[in-house]
Amino acid sequence: MVSSALQIAGLLIGGIGMIGTFAVTGMPQWRVSAFIENNIIVFETIWEGLWMHCIRQANIRMQCKVYDSMLALSPDLQASRGLMCVGSVLSFLAFIIAIIGMKCTRCAQSSWQAKGRIILTAGLLFILSGAVELIPVCWVANSIISDFYNPVVNVAQKRELGEALYLGWVAAFCLIAAGAIFCCFCRCCEKTRSYGHSAPTHYRTHSQHLHRKTESSYSKSQYV
Fold it and tell me: What per-residue confidence (pLDDT) applies to 110?
């Protein structure tokens, strides 16, 4: 019962991380215009994402335009586009594999040992997808912060951290947490299985020792 609840919790956390990864990949709020010094045009907000950039005016009207070419992106956003796509695919595969390997799922010709290996594979994929997602999110955040404090960069070109980056950190944490839950579950199952195999052997050896001792005492009484 506890193991099933642990698996379901890991699957739910991994599902939240997977959905968050998909959302972060498509959101345009990676870079947000900063209102500092003379740049106080508060009725216009600029968003820059992996696939498009948007201009929002006075919380009423928003226009978005897809990038005409990848060359229009900065190097960090170009790399982030590919890494986020890889992270999305890995998280989806991990989620599907976790469903297949859960104890509540019945598959033909599948043993508990095979299911444990499937769960372990899902856990490793969850951790890998979370790590892959952390790379672009932290890279873009570092680039934004470096440009923000760089006096050479024009004030109008300075950006702030967007909502997509914060959501990306949360999604990556959920993926890594789900992977850790599945890996710890497999580790605990291995210890329980090894203990279950070793305990009967010890009990059998102890019983044989008692049986031999009883036979020897019985033979001595007969001899007397």
Answer: 52
pLDDT tier at 220 (50, 70, 90 boundaries)? very low
Contact in structure between 77 and 142 (CB atoms under 8 Å): no
CA 190 vs CA 120, 143, 187, 196, 214: distances in Å: 11, 44, 5, 10, 37
Answering whether pTM is above 0.70, one says yes
What the block records as the tokens of 208 is 């044989």
**Bridge partners (DSSP) listed for residue 64:** 54
3-state secondary structure of 52: strand
Measured distance CA(58)–CA(136) in Å, rounded: 30
The label of the residue with tokens 């997977």 reads 18
Largest CA distance in the chain: 112
pLDDT by residue (tens digit) across 31-40? 988 776 555 5
